Amino acid sequence: ARFWADRVHYSERHGQYMIHGVTGPNEYENNVNNNFYTNWMAKWVLQYALENYDDIADDQKARLNVSADELEKWQDIVAKMYLPEADITLKGKDYHIFEQHDTFLDKDLTPIADMPQDIRPINQNWSWDRILRSPYIKQSDTLHAMFYFPDAFTEEEKRQNFEFYEPLTVHESSLSPSVHAILAADLEMSDKAVEMYERAARLDLDNYNNDTEDGLHITAMTGSWLAIVQGFAGMRVRDGQLHLKPFLPKKWDKYSFRLVFRGHVLEVSVDQTGANVQLISGDPLTINLSGEEVTLSKSDK
User: Fold this and answer.
1) DSSP label of 192
2) Is 85 a residue of the active site?
């Protein structure tokens, strides 16, 4: 919190706090101003510190020595943090989005699908200068806040931003497809979720980014697992409770996985008849399965 309070500056003209000269999650842009993800996360960190400061032990408070003036400053930054948003029309469709950073919408917003296929991957065909000037996104940026904090945004906010930014995303990072698969699944865009899962799972097998010779992408492998568990199975933790909202992709017969949740080993199986969750080890556990509370015990089948 102290770092972000020092990193922001106050714009007298706008009456808001801003963060200039950063690189957000998108590695195809650097030294930008007011990256939405960065500003949003800075605000969250400060808010988290404010909400939890009173709960820490007295000896920790003495060691941290946070002054009343500091707490007041943090609160002011939270209340006045600039989070860029804008209305934009792209290919005849109107969007209200969170702008990736100042001036992003001034770029030539030609969707990547409308560009020649032989320019990809752009990091092997374009100069760095041209990449920086382009609207093309290597991996989730604005959308990454919605990946980390899906319940902090409305469904319409997530949908508008996904439908705007994904067509501008080249997925030339092994980190990218799985995050988009999870977001698409959250929005019940099952075909897109499967498309992104398959890109993550087959990234090296099909050499999508023409770089398998450099080594295997471990992030894509773990991302494939996340795409199933957080995406297709809808795993979330809300107020300390495990939530699952599974669906089965159209062309699939079944998927299953195990996970450990706070000392409990669970096996989740999803097929054409529905979802089954079995407690393999641990004390009885109540979970939320597709909107209903279910208590599991080791005797359950």
Assistant:
1) H
2) no
